[in-house]
Amino acid sequence: KLDTTVTTEEIEQYYTANKNNFELKDNIIKVIYVKVNKKAPGINKLEKWYKSDQEKDRQQLAEYCHQFAENFYLDDNSWLLFDDLLKEIPIQTYNKELFLQNNRLVEVNDSAFNYYLHIKGFKIRNSLSPLSFEKENIKNIILNKRKLQLITKMKEDIYNDALNNQKIEIYLNDNSKK
């Protein structure tokens, strides 16, 4: 009996009506990220492709990553937690917000790997979380509210049905006698 379809409009309405509930607790980013062995072939081409927004270069980058990268993330339309990315890349920063504000293209390395990072967008903690980042949470909130309403309605229906058919007895506990 539960309607599990949640429309985009419902999600947007909930988000708009409850923006104060969507404050970011962490920094988030949209990013292109590649981790490649220092001895991998064609690194100079990789260094060109990861910086580019041209479709041809993006395709070349994807093909290169599938062949040679140890790890990569090429979906720059989705938000990631910056702290999760920092677990993958040896970046030392004491002020993450300042780092995000001042860096778009980052190249670092360690003894075995080169790391390439193209930061396409970011949101700082304590700012408003973007709708695209909260979409799934909002959908779950809406579904949980529907579940609670359905349960409440079912309890009321069962009670009223039993009351109307005289299939209910109410016992009062009289504690006044000792």
Question: In words, what does this structure look like?
Answer:
The protein is α+β, with helices and mostly antiparallel strands. 43% of the residues lie in helices and 19% in strands. The chain has helices at residues 8-17, 43-49, 55-68, 82-86, 96-102, 131-164, and strands at 28-37, 69-73, 80-81, 105-109, 113-123. Strand 4 (105-109) and strand 5 (113-123) form a beta hairpin. Helix 1 (8-17) crosses helix 6. The longest helix is centred in the last third of the chain and has 34 residues, at 131-164. It is elongated and about 85 Å long. The chain starts with 7 loop residues before the first helix and ends in a 14-residue tail after the last helix.
Keywords summarizing the entry:
5-stranded antiparallel β-sheet; 5 strands; alpha+beta; elongated; 178 residues
Describe the secondary-structure layout.
Blueprint lengths: L7 H10 L10 E10 L5 H7 L5 H14 E5 L6 E2 H5 L9 H7 L2 E5 L3 E11 L7 H34 L14
Antiparallel strand pairs: 1-2, 1-3, 1-5, 4-5
Helix pairs in contact: 1-6
Quick rundown:
This protein is of the alpha+beta class and 178 residues long. Helix content is 43%, strand content 19%. The chain is built from six helices and five strands; from the N terminus they run αβααββααββα.
